[in-house]
Amino acid sequence: MQKELSYAIITPHSLEKSRTGVILARIVARTGLELVAARMFAPSEALTSELADHLISDADQHEPWVQELLRDYVAKRFSPDRRTGRRKRAMILVLRGEDAVHKIHETVGNVRADSHGGETIRDSLGDLILDENRQVQYFEPALLVANSPQEVESHLKIWSRYSDQDGGLLENLIEYPAHVTPQKTLVLIKPDNFRFPTGRPGNVLDFFSRTGLYIVSIKVTQISVAEAEEFYGPVREVLRTKLTDRVAEEAKEALEKAFQFPIPPREERQLGEILGPIYGDNQFDNIVRFMTGRSVWECDEQQKNEPGTEKCLALIYEGEDAVNKVREVLGPTDPSKAPPGTVRAEFGSDIMVNAAHASDSPKNAEREMGIIRVGENAFRQVVEEHYP
Hints:
alpha+beta, four-stranded antiparallel sheet, 10 strands, elongated
């Protein structure tokens, strides 16, 4: 069967309630589909109006009154605030795989007033409350999905057309108290979470939701070797110098065992000075290979700038003291030393395969965001490649 694209649009309400991680985890884990694109939007009146007009469909399994309810919900809840003009945040997730439209629709579920339990995402996170006269008292669908491949194509093309002017790195959407100066920080969900389709990427995001910060940008990316070299450049120099003593000690022990004579202290230090930088470069190459799927030494200049074979999910969080709040939830580099309840204690394996990266200072956050280019419109590229 040919692979399809489908999507899930996380509503402004679900984003405000920090349900992004839960939704992503359940969609990927239950469908086995591949997450291929994601983008934040601040929908304009024009985008909202066009989208609402395309929500009525013969393929929709809902009754006509529910279709009208969804259309009215989008027109009202996705539009900029009528009083302040402030736009709202929405997120689109694009997934690919066999029978993608049906799998996502089945996982999300229909809108219904008699839902109970947690069989579908809408059973758990959505609400449709009617009074005794069957009049709607409250409605929240949690997310929007398509009913057919034709709807997917139509809707994705609408979002794609507005993806530059209404999407990317969202600025000035969050209203903060006067005394708060918000920070932005970068989070990378690392390749070990994408080896095969699981709920892990979403589960990691769910940990970060307790920071109280706001997601203002998201991008599925395959980091190039050149980007990884620049990103981890400061680590390279540390590895070349800080491992000198360890390398010297281990080289001394190995040589003494092999040749059966003692190595004097001066020569031991020289061994560290010679071998330390080489060992550090090797460790650095292991990091690059892990993040990109390619070794520095295997690539020519052209290959270094090509997208890697490994997938990451890059996000920018915004809010008060964002850097420290994210680092606290992330935990220390070594998962064996991370306290319970942190991302790395829960999902990390070792110092390199440790689930996620987060900027360690506002200055580094700015540098790293520039390298990863989280606001870049990879979403539109995926749509245009699938629907040429």
